[in-house]
Amino acid sequence: MGYLLLALLSLFLHFLKRLYTPYKAEIKQTFVLALPIIMGQLGIVLMGVADTLMVGHLGKDVLAAANQANSIFFMVSSVTFGVMFAISSRVSIQVGEGNRLETFATYRAGQWAAILLFLCQFTALEIIIRNFGYLGQHGSINELTPGFLRIINFSALPMLLSTASRQYTDGLGHTKVAMSITFGGLALNVLLNYGLIYGNMGLPAMGMYGAAWATLIARVGMALAGIWYIRYSGFLAIYRPPAMPAWPEIKVQLSALWKLGLPVGLQTFAEWACFSISGLMVGWLGTAQVAAHAVALNVASVAYMVVSGMAVAGSILTGNAFGEKNKEAIRKVAYATFFIIVIFQLFNVALFMLFNRQIASLYGVDAEVMPIILPLFFLAAVFQLADGVQAGAMNLLRGITDVRWASIISVLSYWVVSLPASYFLGIMLDGKVFGVWTGFTLGLFVAAAFGVWRFYHKLKSLTWE
To answer: Rounded to an integer, what distance in angstroms lies between the CA atom of residue 460 and that of residue 229?
Structure first.
């Protein structure tokens, strides 16, 4: 058996080398650009992981409540994030066109968009908080979640301003900037969690609400750091015009961001809201089910952020090639993006299958929750490939500005397939959290299949005016 496995591994590596060699330069370029983005993305999601790890030791009720608060926050944030994601696409195209000074006006427009989107997001979340009881959550979740959600609601503005800075520097290809700021924010968040959750370092013990305050303070610090760096860094001086952009110029770029970003916002909302609403369905099943869902989704989100970073790098390079009107370069970047994503996700499949119990034990969950978590890791392994491929396809479509089709595919996959399937399998057939997860796994495979088809169909007929 050992010789057979070695023979199969050797055959696989030989096959992999044949796929890699013709696109070696493009794969290397994509990976080098992606690595700092991946680290930055991981820094963002690791804030949530740190919160979950540290709050999880307070008990499954607290873990479930914090998870539901963050889930609802990011469901609403998905629209605003989607619009902000358009900044990097817009900037990368401007760089490809050779219009580097215009990129700063796009950044300033992104700051205005952040303020306007914050006002909408804050209002929407406040309405949800005041009417939280209508969501039908379990008793302890219903009591604890609104207070946590109200605190992190104030963090939406610094989060969006920080996102505008990160999208701008990423779009320019200077991806290490956001990575450094994000890891600084992560370190601050963990330190404040240690103090404010448990009452260490002379700070008051605030329990789960300490994690919310830590997140708010860390996001303010990240926003200020990003704004300062872009305004005063000598490294980015070549992108700053001699005079700050006037309102008419900002208005033109703001209009372009709405045009590109709103369909992206619809796409991200369709996907993220699907996961959030699925989480609310799990909330009808009790705190043990929610705690298991929180841990498994938390781990899966780490893997997703890695492939998301790769996909964003693909989007930036595609945007550059689109601005240069180079179809062959777009095709090569797409190949490199999918190649890296698939290889990484195959590694995750093995990791989730072989070490599910060890990973779950890191969260300190009790004996009641562990048997629920382990089957979810099996499903997480199953949907890894589909999740990575759909992320790559959606970002590549964004790079060539085909954002409407990305929105249509997302709505079809998540709202027509995932949510009805999750409700039917998890609630009506009493499959509980495993049934809910099976539903959104089906949606991810649909999104991956249609996303890849649309990208290559659009690439084949791509023309420039």
So the answer is: 40
Q: What gap in Å lies between CA 273 and CA 252, rounded to an integer?
A: 30
Is 344 buried (19+), middle (13-18) or exposed (0-12) by CB count in 10 A?
Answer: middle
Mean pLDDT along residues 63-72: 80
Is residue 218 assigned to a domain? yes
Q: Which residues contact 95 (CB under 8 A, 6 or more apart)?
A: 103, 171, 172, 173, 319, 320, 323
Domain assignment of residue 217, yes or no: yes
Token pair listed for 323: 């601005």
Distance CA 65, CA 144 (A): 6
Confidence of residue 357 (pLDDT cuts 50, 70, 90): confident
Spell out the SS3 assignment of 445-457. HHHHHHHHHHHHH
- In sequence order, what E strands does 113-255 have? none
Would residue 231 count as lying in a domain?
A: yes
pLDDT at 452 over 90: yes
Q: Which of 451, 60, 100 is nearest to 288 (CA)?
A: 60
Total domain count for the chain? 1
Check: CB of residue 337 under 8 Å from CB of residue 30.
Answer: yes
Q: What is the pLDDT of residue 353?
A: 82
pTM of the full structure: 0.77
Whether residue 18 is contained in a domain is answered as yes
Q: What is the DSSP code (8-state) at residue 305?
A: H
Whether residue 192 is predicted with pLDDT greater than 90 in this model: the reply is yes
Q: Which domain holds residue 453?
A: 9-460
Whether 245 and 104 have beta carbons less than 8 Å apart is answered as: yes
